[in-house]
Amino acid sequence: MISLTNNLVALGRKARDKADAIAQAVDLLAAAGKIDPRYGDSMLGREKVANTFLGNGIAIPHGLPKDRELIRETAIAVVQLPEGVDWGPGDRARLVVAIAAKSDEHLQILTNLMDVLGDPAEADRLATTGETGDIVARLTGAAAVPAAPPADAGEAFGDGFEATIAGAHGLHARPATALVDIAKGFKAEIRVAHGDKTGNAKSLISLLGLGVAGGGRIRATARGPDADRALAALKAAIEAGLDDEEEAGQAASGTARAPEVSYDGHMIAGIASSPGFAIAPVFRFAREEVVFEANAADPAAERRRLDAVVKTAGRQLEDLYEEVWKKSGPAKAGIFRAHQEFLEDPEIVAAAQALIEAGRSAPFAWKSAYLDRADMLAAMRDPVLAGRAVDLRDAGHRVLRLLGEVKSDAAAHPTEPCILVADDLTPSDTAGLDPALVQGICTASGGPTSHSSIIARSLDIPAVTGAGASVLDIASGTPALLDGAHGLLVTGPSEADTGRIRTALADLGKQREIEKRDCYRPALTTDGVRIEVVANISDTGEARAAVDAGGEGVGLLRTEFLFLNRPDAPSEEEQVEIYAAMIEALNGLPIIVRTLDVGGDKAIPYLRMPAEENPFLGERGIRFCLSHEEIFRTQLRAIYRASARGPVRIMFPMVAMTGELDRALAIATEVRREIGAKEVETGIMIEVPSAVMMARELAQRVDFFSIGTNDLTQYVLAMDRMHPVLARHADGLQPAVLRMIDLTVKAARAEEIWVGACGGIAGDPLGATILSGLGVVELSVSIPSIAAVKAQLRRQSMAENRKLAERALACPDAGAVRALGRGGA
């Protein structure tokens, strides 16, 4: 931790105003050689952005992140003002703790300040003491002020274990999130130490603050009733590599390269973060402003308000996680799991609550808490760790906009095709972009390891990052082209420049036009076997998009979207209207409607779902519907009424036993007869091993099976597909899973019903080949995968697919199966 020396503490001072108080602190820092005196202007600049008054007479002025080059050495200066000085409306500072931080060495001092905030008598003592040593000791923890021992002081931390953090970027957001997730599953208090720093294993901010680089050593210790089990779980996770996947994509150097090509226009070099080209006018992106009152009279009410809003933001992130998971897979969606951890971080929550107790409003307290910690992260030397400051600001802003009043500018969002230019984009900003309008992205800061870059690649939007502040001076409407392959933004391009890019775009367009034209052709193998390729959808817009993409229907309509982001369940009439709109959008193509599938990782608060120790093994899928029969009956009435508009099939999720299916079918028959609807085909999802082993009996009761490969994989392998460590091992091409699929298909054939499949491997070229070879006759995939899967199947013979499937069933593991796709023996 940084030392605080006597020459950086000034006692008994007076100040005319805030600026004078800051100037006195700057004089102390400059005289000690810690800063360039110009850093004082940066501190005043910070005050214009956010009031740095914490409460109980304490202020912590600090500079803007862009001016860190003016800091020669991280340091802190303290100016004591017994009479106080006005720091803002209603605020009077008596202890000014000025921070010049180019690293995170000052974190412990800030932690000690948070302790003082909760103790008005101690804050008053420090503001009036005549002993410099009192202030130094209290802020550095040098034992001048004894602290009350913790309640469990008699129980010491054990020896723990040491481990090396693998991966190029060490303990960055994703592996740190994995550790936090595991630590929170235990009652024990867990510490992680690196060098002379110690962090709380249940706090993502605390772990990131350790600055553990790739190959860094840590020591984990614990105390509490389950300390040994906690340490064993953490050790196993670290040895397994946590959830550390490369975040950088193709270009991860983090530095701008010299351009490899030349354009006639003005070239601005950045970092190639997402490949591709764009020609469009520049559009300068501006984020909304949130306004709020700084003070509040009722701390209890503000605490309740903050708690409620944090929960709401958490639900929003859960929805965003599901949406990105569906579009781009779990690795990309994992970004928003880290955001959820930020919202629940005990250090941020404690800091915000301390400010609320000091009379601050919930939005003021929250903004101060998350911005201060974001600045700490931004000061870290590792670019990936520093880049997580953007993620913290993104998560924090999500809460702030719910607490305050949003003043949005209609001109802040593009309405025409553009190259979007911004200082940086948060993951939420990027995930919300419309690729039809935003044809390219150029940011002044950030890099290819930023989460916004990762999402840009997943949306297939060309992007250049780290182009420098000069891009922010480009006026909206300026003609430009973006070369994502070489990391260039070109303004004022010549005709020759645009001609080159237009030619490249035209060639790409022709290729995609051929794919578009062919996407309507059936997936007919070279020896004449047809496989239907249909779409997974969640809303009416996706139903239309599925048809446009060449989908031959909908193999999975997730109806959960109807129940999200609302205070109560949708009415029967509302559901009829939405289902009917989808059926009509398909224009005669079939649609399989899955009844409500909640539970496990999909919780809807107003449905009063029980808190379960093992929700994936609890009341989910058909079990939930049977225990909430009125909701189930309402949905079935809506589906049957809508079925008059076109071909509809009903599918029940998570059926594990014949008794569950019998009861669901009986209710469905009652509902159908009540409203006089015609019979429709009925099927079930095969997602659990018991359904596979009872497939013959289940097949005697229904018209079709649809194998949910994602859930089947996690239940067969006993690996939660959302688990921070195990998720990447939950591969649907594991032979154990393929053998379950083989058993299912054979049982279905014996009863003369057909089998489809949905989930990740259905949209994987190798997975589609093997599934068809096993006898699956319908593949339900994400909309962007439809054309590729159909093209893949058209190039193959079913005879060869069957041989490949037989070889896959005999493989020892998923790696060997995937090697078959690469021509392995």
From TrEMBL:
Cofactor section: Mg(2+)
Subcellular location as annotated: Cytoplasm
UniProt GO BP: phosphoenolpyruvate-dependent sugar phosphotransferase system
EC primary class: transferase
GO molecular function: kinase activity; metal ion binding; phosphoenolpyruvate-protein phosphotransferase activity
Principal location class: cytoplasm
One Pfam family hit: PEP-utilizers_C
Name used for this protein in its record: Multiphosphoryl transfer protein
Organism of provenance: Rhodovulum kholense
